[in-house]
């Protein structure tokens, strides 16, 4: 149009005689004769159109008409500029909304990942943000294996339905999208399941046809140190699956990429925190000595650090063997949860250990001396402790006299023979480090064979929603429920039962059980015995029977390594009798200086038989273990008309004789 091309007004009274209009001009073809046009401009002053008035007859345009047309053109320019401003404002607002959404999303990512301290935490955050913030239906996190040859999904809880467990792991050479992302370091997007299957046929059989778009995004480790790779290397892949096809929203993909980036930072931080936590725990454990082997006593302990802390603590335990008849047990908790507390704990523990060994004194006196040394040497540590002395009672049937003193520590517990739990809640003295010259008090009780004394720190009972008494009552109930648990497993089982996964404080637990004493039959030589124990026809009696066997072996001086082997084999044949035999069942021990013989007698004459070439009795392990570990073993049938096992109607009747078998093995004792 001439007006736009010239960017100037164009007025003609008769275009037929005006050379500014070419013969082929549109206005001529439309039959226009008179013409008046004014340009319309945009925000930048560029012509974007024209306001034109025409007439089919020649006409002389008046000044007023031309002025009106010029005003109208200016109004059109103003309206065009206003519309452009509105569109510009709309775009700016849309961009601001997008930027605000992205900022809020990034802020939520930062806050969510800030609390992630483990791989499981990172996996949970990805699932939460991926579904709520990005709109994905399913999410997954896969991490490269430590050997760098494969990649494994950390969890199958958030992946799409039908995803097989066998597909959880892949070699990096496999033809799968997560492997391709690791190899190239580039994200992959697929608008539909068909697009994914066309590119990776191997996954077609395992993908869900009812779902839509998918994204596979690389997770980058900034430094690479945590995973032993180069800086900015790929350590994993985040997978998103949407319900609908064709999701080509670049904003969503950008948010997903941001999530993957934050995940890489969080994973590296979690690894470093875990390394610090392991180092702190190693330092803590290095300051705790191994428990001694004490005749007639079964000791076990555990130290469990807080799950959400990389600091060492002041909890400790120790045991000192004075002689074959006396020993000292101690548990304490120094105030603080830092390196200084750990160092102070190590000094206090060493002081008390030395005092216990060098002073034949009561627990109260040992704690008084410790408090005095704590002040005199300038440690000025504060904390709690309980000190217990065990003295074997002469001609007391294996019982021990327990003398204890407490410096502000939680009360010891005793698991009695009848399954009840007694709280030794005599009044506690003042904690350590307050008044060094304070007088301390001893308390006493008796610990009989088969009974267990439990010492612990307050981390085992500190429950935020419970009072101290309620927490102690809960510990007592849990301890009573574990009456048949082996001593070696008791401390850690208590921690897991009571605290679970969310542990907010360090915990030290020390348990000591008085062993049952072996009663010799017609034997006079030391270290010999011939004993028998009836076993209830119930698997619940398996653990107590196993404990009884270990006690008998220990009191006869069988070394620990051999006791473990014998107890393992005895457990196998006991389990077989309980599973496949019949009552009455009894365990027999015959111990002499040269060998240990263990037999399990039951009322079934059926001999144990291998089920097939590969599966053997005892769950496929029994005979293999016996053949490999026992010096000798066998099965002996028997017939017994013992009146105690028969009623009055059948007693003396040969046909009513009780039949059964004894499965036995022997272990030659070490010289």
From TrEMBL:
State if Hydrolase is listed as a keyword.
yes
Disordered as annotated region, ranges: 637-660
UniProt xrefs under InterPro entries: Bact_Sigma-Reg, GAF, GAF-like_dom_sf, HATPase_C_sf, HATPase_dom, PPM-type-like_dom_sf, PPM-type_phosphatase-like_dom
SUPFAM superfamilies, per the entry = GAF domain-like (SSF55781), PP2C-like (SSF81606)
Q: Which residues form the PPM-type phosphatase domain?
A: 297-514
Keyword Hydrolase: yes or no? yes
Instruction: Report which superkingdom the organism of origin falls in.
Output: Bacteria
Q: Which Gene3D superfamilies match?
A: 3.30.450.40, Histidine kinase-like ATPase, C-terminal domain, PPM-type phosphatase domain
Q: Which SMART domains match?
A: PP2C_SIG
Alphabetic keyword roster: Hydrolase
Q: Where is the composition biased (Acidic residues)?
A: 637-647
Name the PANTHER family on file: STAGE II SPORULATION PROTEIN E (PTHR43156:SF2), STAGE II SPORULATION PROTEIN E-RELATED (PTHR43156)
Protein's recorded name = SpoIIE family protein phosphatase
Biological classification of the source? Bacteria, Bacillati, Actinomycetota, Actinomycetes, Micrococcales
